[in-house]
Amino acid sequence: MSGTELLGFAAAILTTVCWLPQAFKTIRTKDTRSLSLVTQGALTLGVGLWLVYGILVDSPPIIFANGANFVLVALILALKVRYG
Amino acid sequence: MSGTELLGFAAAILTTVCWLPQAFKTIRTKDTRSLSLVTQGALTLGVGLWLVYGILVDSPPIIFANGANFVLVALILALKVRYG
Prior knowledge:
Mean pLDDT of chain A: 95
Structural class of chain A: mainly alpha
CATH architecture of chain A: Up-down Bundle
Organism (chains A, B): Microvirga aerilata
Shape of chain A: globular
Number of strands of chain A: 0
Helix content of chain A: over 70%
Oligomer: homodimer
GO molecular function, one term (chains A, B): sugar transmembrane transporter activity
Transmembrane segments (chains A, B): 6-24, 36-56, 62-79
InterPro entries (chains A, B): PQ-loop_rpt (IPR006603), SemiSWEET (IPR047662)
Distance between the termini of chain A: 45 Å
Keywords (chains A, B): Membrane, Sugar transport, Transmembrane, Transmembrane helix, Transport
Low-confidence stretches of chain A: none
């Protein structure tokens, strides 16, 4: 694997696992006041579209990264809707 | 442009402009308490790596989407660091 590919994988992993601390923090504190509902909703929809795009162009990296990403950002959106 | 390409562009635009409401909300309220510093830091680093990856593979869509994205997530990170 080339250095450029490694960089792309590092970017994909970081922009996916980065949602874990926010999910844990929100579950623990039940505090979502400073999160923007519009941002979280548009992000969830956008990541969902990336997932569909990955399926249509048959790209495993796009599917896996955005599939995992979708689960986490949708969870944070659900917590925002619940706690306000 | 095919429907699949349109879907990809819609995904790229949504996952970029979605950061505007969070940036405006944070600037207005100065409230960053429920934002995770680790998430915002890792997201900013990850989007920065996507930008470098886009430059290395010479992909204008990756460069433009992640360039705009980087400005917004780095701004939100700076607000988080400032307001705590």
